[in-house]
TrEMBL record:
Protein name: Diaminopimelate decarboxylase
Active site: residue positions: C331
Assembly and oligomerization: Homodimer.
InterPro entries: Ala_racemase/Decarboxylase_C (IPR009006), DAP_deCOOHase_LysA (IPR002986), De-COase2_C (IPR022643), De-COase2_N (IPR022644), Orn/DAP/Arg_de-COase (IPR000183), PLP-binding_barrel (IPR029066)
């Protein structure tokens, strides 16, 4: 970690306390433009930030200011997007397993909808007139990554199977539903660009069956490095290859289409820093534990996905390297990192987790009746408090008291 960054994080934790999430918009902006640039050979490209990665209203507003659209998976995310100032047409709602009632409420807002279920498609076509839809196809390719986050495999609940294309077409013909877009999202972590391109080929074949599309949405799965030597999706190579195919396809299709992506992790992961304080050091027969004032209630990815987050001692960046197992205070196994080489940790030091911008705060909970951390947004290097630290009153705010 750079010394200017360490200094900045030290100052922030002094001012706002720990645990603390910090997001740097300079990094978000850089990622956003890097991705756009990779697809510069395509005339119309639209990025829709998949906001489940980080739904703080200020983060959403920042994406709006960049010109991004929004990919949402719940009515609440749609509502947050509207509150952040997005035009309904810039929001795409990609639900799975939700009720038709929720779908009806969402389309009353005029947002775009992506349908991933034949039964819903049929009901939608019969009940809702003159409302174009996008269809989520499952091409059954495995883009790699963690089984919890890969969505393209045969047993996956996501999308409408490519093998059901005849059934999709029958519903479209029977109901007269207008299909404006075709979509796939094969899950996080594109490890192999060629596999992704195979999926794209499948999607082009599907697209031919629909005669008035406006866009093709290739979902996401752009992988970012979490540690040294980690694989990162080669977006420039992907951009070059996909642009060639996309431009050829547009010629065949005789219509200019918009290429869409909906990245979450790629846009925000590296912008985030999570700072915790060290409560105690505990020596056991086999290791040295650094026990911190946080747990999987604040950052669940290590326990849930076996994710690796770099851990840095920002209070002692010059200290000699020692080996630690960093654990939380939750009363069950709650390990952030095992056998990590970290600059010597003393009780009271502040540790920083990197890659804490995506799926960290947004997956946090109040387990053990702990309070959620505060969040800071760095805008032009100036810190803004974008969520205050919770208090006990927040925990009690939904409780109905009865006398027993
Ligand atoms: C979660 C999700 C994304 C974002 O995935 P990342 O790996 O964070 O880029 C995109 N599209 C859909 C439909 C999703 O559910």
């Amino acid at each position: 970690m750079e010394s200017a960054r360490i200094q900045q994080l030290q100052n922030l934790v002094k001012e706002f306390g720990a645990p603390l999430y910090v997001y740097d918009t300079a990094i978000i902006k850089n990622q956003y433009h890097k991705l756009l640039k990779a697809f510069k050979n395509i005339k119309k490209v639209k990025l829709n930030y998949a906001c489940k990665a980080n739904t703080n209203l200020a983060v959403l507003k920042y994406f709006k200011s960049l010109g991004s659209g929004l990919d949402t998976v719940s009515i609440q995310e749609v509502q947050l997007g509207l509150l952040a100032g997005f035009d309904p047409k810039e929001i795409i709602y990609t639900p799975n397993g939700v009720s038709f009632k929720e779908i009806k409420q969402v389309i009353e807002q005029g947002v775009r909808i992506n349908i991933d279920n034949l039964s819903i498609l049929e009901t939608f076509g019969q009940e809702i007139k003159n409302y174009p839809v996008c269809i989520r196809i499952n091409p059954h390719i495995l883009a790699g990554g963690n089984t919890k986050i890969s969505t393209g495999h045969i047993d996956s609940k996501f999308g409408i199977s490519i093998h059901q294309l005849p059934h999709i077409l029958r519903i479209v013909n029977n109901t007269g539903i207008k299909v404006e877009g075709i979509h796939m999202h094969t899950g996080s972590d594109i490890l192999d660009v060629e596999v992704f391109l195979q999926g794209a080929e499948i999607l082009f074949n599907v697209a031919k069956e629909f005669h008035d599309l406006d866009y093709i949405d290739f979902g996401s799965g752009f992988k970012v490095p979490y540690k040294k030597g980690d694989h990162e999706t080669d977006i420039n190579y992907l951009g070059k290859k996909l642009a060639e195919r996309f431009n050829d396809f547009q010629k065949e299709y005789h219509k200019e289409l918009t290429l869409m992506f909906e990245p979450g992790k790629y846009l925000v992961s590296q912008s985030g820093f999570f700072i915790v304080s060290v409560n105690v050091i505990k020596q056991t027969t086999s290791t040295v534990f650094a026990e911190v004032d946080s747990g999987f209630n604040h950052l669940i990815r290590p326990m849930f996905y076996n994710a690796y987050h770099n851990i840095f001692n920002i209070s002692n960046p010059e200290g000699r390297h020692r080996f630690y197992t960093v654990v939380g205070y939750i009363c069950e196994t709650d390990t952030f990192g095992t056998n990590r080489k970290i600059n010597e940790i003393r009780e009271g030091d502040f540790l920083c987790f990197e890659n804490a911008g995506a799926y960290c705060f947004s997956m946090s909970s109040n387990y053990n009746s702990r309070l959620k951390p505060a969040e800071i947004l760095l805008l032009d290097n100036k810190p803004y408090l974008i969520r205050r630290r919770e208090t006990l009153n927040d925990l009690l705010s939904t409780t109905e008291e009865i006398s027993i």
